[in-house]
């Protein structure tokens, strides 16, 4: 199901349960502003490359809009719109004074050099600098971006508006970033997993985990879970997927991915088809990448007893219904990872 259609469907269900007025419902579904910009940069070899960047500002009723910027080949308007809407609901549920926004550029960061990524980020910032700001819209890292990306945005924005360190979050510590910010979401996933397992008389130690996505969230979750005695048997990222039934050496994998920018080629595990990662045999599945990956087609093939949702809307509504029907007699549980500072919401499958 299309990301925006899935998000709208869930919102309309919530709206019905809350008894919202139809006019208010319609108003809340329409974003405050949608921005689409062309970003052309010179590549290292002298050729020109063009990319499309997006920023959707969904709602500012509760305060400045807030949301990440992702770099990924599948970034497109409906996905960004859905993610911006989700940010509005997350900040409201957590009762923090922000609205929702989201942005991204359709690109494969693994195929761009550091200097090319810097040029792309600066051009994107030049195109949107007058529409973001401390009291307007505050970007943050997301899939394919990180502290360095935020530092480039801060520097470029400051050329137009003066030094403004608060214009982004998730920036390097030296520029005023927060200690622990990198690990925050992955740590929230670990805490949520721990709490969920405790409810069922279990602990992380000895449990077998599969993690889809080995970016900031997935890698930190893997590190912290392995330190608690969890066994990570399979992981995947944009470069490929790997498996070791005896458990992957996570410290070694982290070192490898820092050097090679991906899990592909790691010699401490066997390569597997990326499309099979969600249905690998495990106790706990952690989707920590894209949305809508659990759907009607694959939900009934998932073998995990528990699903810890560390991505944004990784289970679409059709997949949710299929999974509940298929595992009606089981103890399977989904935990929605709303990011550490946005709250964690758990629910038990029927």
TrEMBL record:
Reaction catalysed by this enzyme: L-glutamate + NAD(+) + H2O = 2-oxoglutarate + NH4(+) + NADH + H(+); L-glutamate + NADP(+) + H2O = 2-oxoglutarate + NH4(+) + NADPH + H(+)
Family of the protein in this entry: Belongs to the Glu/Leu/Phe/Val dehydrogenases family.
High-level lineage: Eukaryota, Viridiplantae, Streptophyta, Embryophyta, Tracheophyta
GO molecular function (one): nucleotide binding
Residues the record marks as active site: 102 (proton donor)
Keyword terms of this UniProt record: NAD, Nucleotide-binding, Oxidoreductase
Ranges where the Glutamate/phenylalanine/leucine/valine/L-tryptophan dehydrogenase C-terminal domain occurs: 178-343
Protein's UniProt name: Glutamate dehydrogenase
Positions annotated to bind NAD(+): 185, 216
Binding site for substrate: 66, 90
UniProt GO BP: L-glutamate catabolic process
InterPro entries in alphabetical order: Aminoacid_DH-like_N_sf, Glu/Leu/Phe/Val/Trp_DH, Glu/Leu/Phe/Val/Trp_DH_C, Glu/Leu/Phe/Val/Trp_DH_dimer, Glu/Leu/Phe/Val_DH_AS, Glu_DH, NAD(P)-bd_dom_sf
Pfam families in UniProt: ELFV_dehydrog, ELFV_dehydrog_N
């Amino acid at each position: 199901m299309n990301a925006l259609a899935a998000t709208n469907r869930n919102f309309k269900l919530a709206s019905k349960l809350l008894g919202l007025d139809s006019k208010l419902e319609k108003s809340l579904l329409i974003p405050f502003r949608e921005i689409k910009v062309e970003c052309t940069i010179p590549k290292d070899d002298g050729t020109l490359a063009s990319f499309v960047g997006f920023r959707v500002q969904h709602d500012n009723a509760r305060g400045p809009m807030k949301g990440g910027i992702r770099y990924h080949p599948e970034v497109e308007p409906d996905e960004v719109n859905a993610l911006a809407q989700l940010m509005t609901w997350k900040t409201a549920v957590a009762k923090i004074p922000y609205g929702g926004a989201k942005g991204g550029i359709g690109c494969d960061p693994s195929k761009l050099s550091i200097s090319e990524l810097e040029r792309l980020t600066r051009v994107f910032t030049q195109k949107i600098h007058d529409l973001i700001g401390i009291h307007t819209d505050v970007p943050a890292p997301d899939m394919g971006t990180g502290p360095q990306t935020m530092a480039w945005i801060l520097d470029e924005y400051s050329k137009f508006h003066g030094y403004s360190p608060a214009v982004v979050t998730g920036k390097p510590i030296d520029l005023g970033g927060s200690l622990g910010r990198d690990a925050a979401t992955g740590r929230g996933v670990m805490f949520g997993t721990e709490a969920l397992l405790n409810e069922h008389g279990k602990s992380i130690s000895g449990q077998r985990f599969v993690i889809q996505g080995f970016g900031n969230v997935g890698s930190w979750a893997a590190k912290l879970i392995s330190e608690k005695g969890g066994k990570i048997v399979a992981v995947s990222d944009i470069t490929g997927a790997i498996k070791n039934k005896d458990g992957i050496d996570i410290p070694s994998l982290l070192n490898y991915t820092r050097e090679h920018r991906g899990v592909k080629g790691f010699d401490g595990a066997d390569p597997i088809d990326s499309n099979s990662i969600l249905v690998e045999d495990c106790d706990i599945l952690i989707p920590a990448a894209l949305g809508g990956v659990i759907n009607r087609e694959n939900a009934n093939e998932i073998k995990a007893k528990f699903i810890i949702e560390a991505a944004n809307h990784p289970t679409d509504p059709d997949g949710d219904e299929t999974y509940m029907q298929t595992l009606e007699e089981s103890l399977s549980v989904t935990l929605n990872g709303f990011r550490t500072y946005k709250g964690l919401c758990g629910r038990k499958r029927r």
